[in-house]
Design brief:
CATH superfamily of one domain: Probable tRNA modification gtpase trme, domain 1
Subunit structure: The glycine cleavage system is composed of four proteins: P, T, L and H.
CATH topology of one domain: Gyrase A, domain 2
Strand content: 25-35%
Strand order of the largest sheet: 10-11-12-9-3-13
Radius of gyration: 21 Å
Oligomer: single chain
Number of helices: 11
Largest sheet: 6 strands, mixed
Function: The glycine cleavage system catalyzes the degradation of glycine.
CATH class of one domain: Alpha Beta
InterPro entries: GcvT, GcvT/YgfZ/DmdA, GcvT/YgfZ_C, GcvT_C, GCVT_N, TrmE/GcvT-like
Helix content: 10-25%
Keywords: Aminotransferase, Mitochondrion, Transferase, Transit peptide
Shape: globular
Order of helices and strands: HHHEEHEEHEEEHEEHEEEHEHHHEEEEEE
Catalytic activity: N(6)-[(R)-S(8)-aminomethyldihydrolipoyl]-L-lysyl-[protein] + (6S)-5,6,7,8-tetrahydrofolate = N(6)-[(R)-dihydrolipoyl]-L-lysyl-[protein] + (6R)-5,10-methylene-5,6,7,8-tetrahydrofolate + NH4(+)
Length: about 400
């Protein structure tokens, strides 16, 4: 949904306060009857979740606390998000790695078993179909999660290419985990709380790694990752056990980890400088333009072999025409589509996500500008409702990340 979830949260919170729920549903292009519900829907409502339509699902935008308070609590203590609207799937078979490498920019073959990476599904023009976290479970098993709003097009894209691949004798099949739910546990208390519920030593389990293990007595898929910039986990759990697991996590944190909605999830990911697909990356945006060059494996740069590789490799060599940047700005917070101009009013690009940072207490945004105007410290103007306000290009993330990584070897 364009404009960012933070802004959506603010406008919907105001509308809910006016008891205009029918108008909210109409504005979000779905009625309550049409929306899918996660198995935690009643739990959200019981705990004060304000439910809104998002990507065809009824999801909590926030709970009883404000979006600002819940953002700060995630950074100070922790948050539990229901992200069961996202789509988890596995690719299996002896050829699943070469198959996936035709569709994504990552060096999947180079991943060690049990490790993963962010990657991008590309189209023939090098544009981003979606971003995804993929994990090589074993050489013949890949686990990945795709965005809820991209589910239908992603699955159709994968299926189309899989049929052609199998027709040529390739060994690959898939399973979509509609029988499982997905929880995201984020923040400094994530690991201590989860450690109470598993016998596995989480201190030896690092950012980007994947395991299958028992949590709260149930077989789960656990990835040390997230969408907040904090340490944390995504937990795939059989849906019939999702409610018990959510309750157990909240209980083990003694109330410090809180249920958190999509509003704070958006402000957290913006502070961490992470893209929201549909805002900061779209089908016409390449990974190079989006600042995700690091996700293109060295071998893939040399060999290509993925959709749109000719466009992307040319951009790597010559540089892209536009680049994703971070911005600080004065005045009201910049929103999606706010124009970025230079001192003379000449257009440089536009904002794709923006809002007020609860942690920094200042306006932050990200967007795209012409190459040459992308260097940190560059002064710009941001046009909001016809008025120009001072802005400065800055590095991202805005808030330092706290991913749990192995200790550096002594020098």
């Amino acid at each position: 949904m364009r404009g960012g979830l933070w802004q959506l949260g603010q406008s919907i919170t105001r509308r809910l306060g006016q008891a205009d729920k029918k108008a909210v549903a109409r504005r979000c292009f779905a009625s309550e009857a049409e929306l899918k519900k996660t198995v935690l829907y009643d739990f959200h409502v019981t705990n004060g979740g304000k439910m809104v339509p998002f990507a065809g699902w009824s999801m909590p935008i926030q709970y009883k606390d404000s979006i600002m308070d819940s953002t700060l609590n995630c950074r100070e203590n922790g948050s539990l998000f229901d992200v069961s609207h996202m789509c988890g799937l596995s690719l299996k078979g002896k050829d699943c790695v070469p198959f996936l490498e035709k569709l994504v920019i990552a060096d999947v073959a180079g991943l060690a078993p049990g490790t993963g990476s962010l990657t991008v599904f590309t189209n023939e023009k090098g544009g981003a179909i979606d971003d995804s976290v993929i994990t090589k479970v074993k050489d013949d098993h890949i686990y990945l999660v795709v965005n809820a709003g991209c589910r239908d097009k992603d699955l159709a894209h994968i299926e189309e290419h899989m049929k052609a691949f199998k027709a040529k004798g390739g060994d690959v099949s898939w399973h979509i985990y509609d029988e499982r739910s997905l929880l995201a546990l984020q923040g400094p208390l994530a690991a201590p709380a989860l450690q109470h519920l598993t016998k596995d030593d989480l201190s030896k389990f690092y950012f980007g790694e994947f395991r299958m293990l028992d949590i709260n007595g149930v077989h789960c898929f656990l990835t040390r990752t997230g969408y907040t910039g904090e340490d944390g986990f995504e937990i795939s759990v059989p849906s019939e056990h999702a409610l018990d697991l959510a309750k157990a996590i909240l209980e083990k944190s003694e109330g410090k980890i809180r249920l958190t909605g999509l509003g704070a999830r958006d402000s957290l990911r913006l502070e961490a400088g992470l893209c929201l697909y549909g805002n900061d990356m779209e089908q016409h945006t390449t990974p190079v333009e989006a600042g995700l060059t690091w996700a293109i494996g060295k071998r893939r740069r040399a060999e290509g072999g993925f959709l749109g590789a000719d466009v992307i490799l040319k951009q790597l060599e010559e540089g892209p025409a536009i680049r994703r940047v971070g911005l600080f700005s004065s005045g009201p917070p910049a929103r999606s589509h706010s124009e970025i101009v230079d001192d003379t009013g000449k257009g440089l690009g536009e904002v794709t996500s923006g809002g007020f940072s609860p942690c920094l207490k200042k306006n932050i945004a990200m967007g795209y500008v012409k190459s040459g105007s992308h260097k940190p410290g560059t002064k710009v103007k941001i046009v909001i409702r016809g008025k120009s306000y001072d802005g400065t290009i800055t590095k991202m993330p805005f808030v330092p990340t706290k991913y749990y990584k192995p200790p550096s070897p002594p020098k």
